[in-house]
Write a structure and sequence with these properties.
Blueprint: E1 3-4, H1 15-27, E2 32-37, E3 40-45, E4 50-53, H2 62-68, E5 74-89, E6 95-100, H3 111-114, E7 126-140, E8 155-170, E9 187-188, H4 190-197, H5 201-213, E10 217-223, E11 226-231
Parallel strand pairs: 4-5, 5-7
Antiparallel strand pairs: 1-2, 2-3, 3-4, 5-6, 7-8, 9-11, 10-11
Helix pairs in contact: 4-5
């Protein structure tokens, strides 16, 4: 049973998270926002499922999700910018310039975060909604006194949702196979993933780890030093 969470503040909540929370609350009839369930604050509590929105890393949500799925149906919502606009503002918040970012997300990028909880995909109470979005990233001058490991002239102030272009629903492990780049052979290696996607070897290795861990693929041999994988279709 959900109860109102006293003293909760959304002061540090980003625009992207707030917009998605409102969007999902409107879709779920008789839903509650920022309610306590089993000692955890849930973004949106619907009549049939709990909706958790993660706009960045999954690592910090692992314990929470693992406990919740034992007694509740849980949806993990993760936005990923298929199209991104970079908006630079000055000290007063006035827009200095706006340009399209050359980097575009790929569904494959989900594995970069899913590596923190791959076995959850097998749980019958858990599913993921991957939102491929158009977003604005707002950047501004670094405040006096702020320190960064590497020198930079700006910091990210906010992310804003412009539109949801596509929704990928992952209900079970085999749905993850649709995140792999097109053109992969039936039996493939991480090198094939790199070649087909243009992404890093690190991401390809994370994808292979997640897929094998949740039994969406199986190892069928080696090609030199690389493991060879084959999709499981059932």
């Amino acid at each position: 049973m959900a109860v109102a969470a006293p003293g909760i503040t959304t002061y540090r909540e980003g625009s992207l998270h707030a917009t998605l929370k409102e969007r999902y609350a409107q879709q779920a009839a008789h839903s509650e926002v920022e309610a306590l369930v089993d000692g955890f604050v849930i973004d949106v509590v619907g009549p049939d499922e709990l909706i958790e929105i993660q706009t960045s890393g999954f690592a910090g949500a692992r314990r929470k999700l693992e406990q919740l799925v034992e007694h509740h149906r849980v949806v993990l919502v993760h936005p990923m910018p298929l199209e991104k606009w970079l908006v630079v503002v000055d000290e007063g918040g006035a827009i200095v310039r706006r340009r399209r970012s050359p980097r575009r997300a790929q569904p494959l990028d989900l594995f970069d975060e899913l590596v923190h909880l791959p076995s959850l995909v097998e749980h019958p109470n858990f599913r993921i909604e991957l939102l491929l979005t158009c977003e604005e990233e707002v950047r501004g001058p670094i405040p006096m006194g702020a320190r960064y490991r590497y020198p930079r002239a700006w910091w990210r102030l906010d992310r804003r949702l412009v539109d949801v272009l596509e929704t990928r629903r992952i209900d079970e492990p085999r749905d993850l196979l649709a995140l792999l780049p097109a053109g992969l052979p039936e039996v493939f290696t991480t090198a094939d993933i790199v070649a087909a996607s243009g992404r890093s070897k690190r991401l390809a290795m994370r994808a292979a780890y997640c897929l094998e861990r949740c039994r969406a693929v199986e190892r069928v041999g080696r090609q030199g030093r690389r493991a060879m994988y084959r999709r499981r279709h059932r």
